[in-house]
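Input record (one chain):
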Amino acid sequence: TMQEATFDYHPYKLHRLETGPATSTTLTRDDALKIYHEMVTIRRMETAAANMYKEKAIRGFCHLCSGQEAIYSGMKAAMREQDSVITSYRAHGFTYVMGVPVLGVLAELAGKKSGCVRGK
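The corresponding structure, as predicted from the sequence alone:
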């Protein structure tokens, strides 16, 4: 089995910049498996949220992020410890990758006190 893979891509067109981002990156097997696990977990969490919404356990709007799992996992993988995320909606995936457990996200959507901000 392979332990890492390297990806090369074309340089970006720059506007008023001397240098741009790297044109090559390496991904280890462990990092790839972690990212894949995050993406699958987010998809399953969104499926559960969709079912809860259909059952009227989630009131109001529920903007799902199914199909956007790689955005959250990829951005989290690239973030440094001091970085933070601000989002408006479709934030369930970000909430999960930033450390809130699945049950905390789903409880929040359902307005439960066990949610990440106490269902408010």
